[in-house]
Amino acid sequence: MSWLNPDDAQWTYVSRRLIPARLISVWLAVVVFAVVFLWLQAYVGGWWYYGAVAVLLVGLWSTWVAVRQVTAHAWAERDDDLVVKSGRMFRRVVVVPYGRMQYVEVQAGPMARMFGIARVQLHTASPGTDAHISGVPVAQAARLRDRLTTRGEAQLAGL
């Protein structure tokens, strides 16, 4: 058993709809900064077009990173806890025992609602064990919230 990939975990990966939701934000910023640099090049002169090229390269790199991050984000519901993993280069695995959950929150901003996804945030007594799952389809997020809440209450009742 690897600490990054528990043997008994049945991973559920986040929705791929999270990729375009993140990329829209990235490319809006890229376009704004590229236009600023190109405007400076046209009206001030100098070497400002290098800034536009740099911004485009950062946009391409950010696209690659966003795709890799989304495809690495998953969760697994086990008997006693929820395991959330994320990251490719800097991997993170958070194990949240159901009995430690104080409440589960589902959030969806305008962009997330447009793509039909939400973020499930788990809150515990210790901020170090809080976890979140971004890119969960809305209906699945509501079911996950209810399941986690029920399991958390059952674990607390056993104390």
Structure description:
By secondary structure, the chain is α+β, with helices and mostly antiparallel strands. The chain folds into 2 domains: 18-68; 74-157, Roll (PH-domain like), CATH 2.30.29.30. The protein has helices spanning 18-43, 49-72, 110-115, 138-157; strands at 12-13, 74-77, 81-86, 92-97, 101-107, 117-124, 131-137. The strands form 2 sheets. Strands 1-2-3-4 form a 4-stranded antiparallel sheet. A 3-stranded antiparallel sheet has the order 5-6-7. Strand 3 (81-86) and strand 4 form a beta hairpin. Helix 1 runs antiparallel to helix 2. The radius of gyration is 20 Å and the shape is elongated. The mean pLDDT is 90.
How is the topology of this model organized?
Elements: E1 12-13, H1 18-43, H2 49-72, E2 74-77, E3 81-86, E4 92-97, E5 101-107, H3 110-115, E6 117-124, E7 131-137, H4 138-157
Antiparallel strand pairs: 1-2, 2-3, 3-4, 5-6, 6-7
Helix pairs in contact: 1-2
